[in-house]
């Protein structure tokens, strides 16, 4: 799996930089071509000579260093990479990557690469817990970066906390997993919907629901990583996954219009959105003034999934609070679906807003696949396994 691959190993300026030598050594022994890129700060902690002696290759430490064969061609490194790993990654590097800053050779390489990027943070526990660092990590995660959580233990400051670089073996496992990723959706076109639609009452208010959009965004991101061309029609406003066409909508009617356009030529439509079933018949032009009672006349919205037709695979979601399987089956039949992903929203750590989900996938032949609690990205992978399976048989 590792042999013959090219790993660009980015090292940032943390005391844990010395552990990168062990990582470089293990990777080199496994037959990996390790191209080391160090920030200026990293060279204060460990010498480039140590790393080049281990990898048998020149180490890139600056944009302008004339001795390096990559000094003006950092883009070629970005292109040669099967995977980029930053270990250790400091709060500073993480912040730069999250905002697209490319002011040194490492950040330039990451910005220029299309290869998957793995980040192994190492820093003081307060810096790690700081909301801005957490927010930056979430932004990177949403763009498909793989984050290897730091461990708990003694830190350089002498304190005990979370911030230690993950064990080298865990980092190698993550590299292996990323390299194993499938590209079974290459050449396929997939439309995903996400979020809860908002149906306006007046210029200020709307009828909405609790959908966060996370499941749909995970599906869009993972489908793209597996090679598909992805259009995400969304009523949520989460950070966009990399290389996905995003169409923002607000209402059920807008979503229907966008989906109808997007599915032309598509191989699959996955409706993870929570589409409002009703909308106010009239939208007040001015803000409705307070009175003792307000009657809203609601009319049904179109059922996008039931009405849309074409030769593509139709996947629905069913968020249920009772008789989960029976209700989901009814929807699968009524809407003419190939698959339905059912979840029990009353379960802890599942459903609205959570990062995890516990779902059951039911297909049109009645087969039931009951999955354990897993992250929404893992659920996305399992749903896409099924979509890829159906596409493969066509
Ligand atoms: N859906 C849709 N258009 C609607 C309502 C739902 O395309 N107007 C899709 C959802 O995106 C989801 C599936 O249909 O993939 C099931 O949605 P859900 O809200 O669970 O079911 P409903 O058909 O609305 O039934 P109910 O609200 O009565 O449970």
Mean pLDDT score: 94
Shape: elongated
Q: For the CA atoms, what is the radius of gyration? A: 24 Å
Number of domains: 2
Q: Which class of the largest domain in CATH terms?
A: Alpha Beta
Largest sheet: 8 strands, mixed
Low-confidence stretches: none
Helix and strand content put the structural class at: alpha/beta
Q: Which ions and ligands are bound to the chains? A: cytidine-5'-triphosphate
Alpha plus pi helix count: 14
- What is the beta-strand fraction? 15-25%
Question: Would you give an account of this structure?
Answer:
The chain is of the alpha/beta class and 394 residues long. The protein has two domains: 6-179, Rossmann fold (3-Layer(aba) Sandwich); 189-393, CoaB-like (Rossmann fold, 3-Layer(aba) Sandwich). It has helices at residues 19-29, 42-45, 48-55, 74-80, 91-99, 105-112, 125-129, 131-142, 168-180, 214-225, 252-262, 304-307, 324-334, 376-393; strands at residues 6-11, 33-38, 83-89, 117-121, 146-147, 151-154, 160-164, 189-194, 199-200, 206-207, 229-234, 245-248, 268-271, 278-280, 298-300, 313-320, 339-344, 356-357, 359-363, 368-370, 374-375. The strands form six sheets. It has an eight-stranded mixed β-sheet, with helices on both faces. A hairpin with a 4-residue loop joins strand 19 (359-363) and strand 20 (368-370). Helix 1 packs parallel to helix 3 (48-55) and helix 10 (214-225) crosses helix 14. The structure holds cytidine-5'-triphosphate. Cytidine-5'-triphosphate (CTP) binds next to helix 12 and strand 16.
């Amino acid at each position: 799996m590792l042999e013959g691959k090219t790993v660009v190993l980015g090292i940032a300026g943390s005391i844990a930089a010395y552990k990168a030598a062990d990582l470089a050594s293990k990777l080199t022994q496994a037959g990996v071509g390790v191209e080391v890129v160090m920030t200026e700060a990293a060279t204060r902690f460990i010498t480039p000579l140590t790393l080049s002696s281990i990898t048998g290759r020149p180490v890139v430490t600056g944009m302008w260093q004339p001795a390096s064969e990559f000094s003006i061609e950092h883009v070629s490194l970005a292109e040669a990479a099967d995977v980029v790993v930053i270990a250790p990654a400091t709060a500073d590097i993480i912040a730069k990557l999250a905002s697209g800053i490319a002011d040194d050779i490492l950040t330039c390489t990451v910005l220029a690469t299309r290869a998957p990027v793995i980040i192994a943070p190492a820093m003081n526990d307060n810096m790690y817990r700081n909301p801005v660092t957490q927010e930056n990590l979430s932004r990177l995660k949403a763009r498909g970066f793989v984050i290897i959580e730091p461990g708990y233990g003694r830190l350089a400051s002498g304190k005990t906390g979370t911030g230690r670089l993950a064990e080298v073996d865990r980092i190698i496992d993550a590299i292996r997993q990323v390299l194993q990723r499938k590209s079974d959706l290459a050449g396929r076109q997939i439309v995903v919907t996400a979020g809860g639609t908002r149906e306006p009452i007046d210029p200020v208010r709307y009828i909405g629901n609790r959908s966060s959009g996370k499941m749909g965004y995970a599906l869009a991101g993972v489908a793209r990583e597996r090679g598909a061309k992805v259009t995400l029609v969304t009523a949520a406003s989460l950070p966009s996954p990399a290389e996905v066409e995003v169409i923002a909508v607000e209402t059920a009617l807008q979503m229907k219009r966008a989906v109808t356009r997007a599915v032309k030529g598509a191989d699959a439509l996955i409706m993870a959105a929570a589409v409002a079933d009703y909308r106010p018949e009239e939208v007040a032009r001015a803000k409705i003034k307070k009175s003792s009672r307000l009657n809203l006349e609601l009319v049904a919205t179109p059922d996008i999934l039931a009405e849309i037709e074409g030769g593509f695979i139709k996947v629905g979601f069913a968020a249920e609070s009772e008789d989960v399987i029976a209700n989901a089956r009814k929807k699968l039949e009524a809407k003419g679906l190939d698959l339905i992903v059912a979840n029990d929203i009353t379960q802890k750590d599942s459903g609205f807003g959570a990062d995890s989900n516990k779902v059951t996938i039911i297909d049109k032949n009645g087969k039931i696949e009951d999955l354990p609690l897993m992250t929404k990205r893992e659920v996305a992978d399992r749903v896409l396994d099924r979509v890829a399976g159906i596409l493969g048989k066509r």
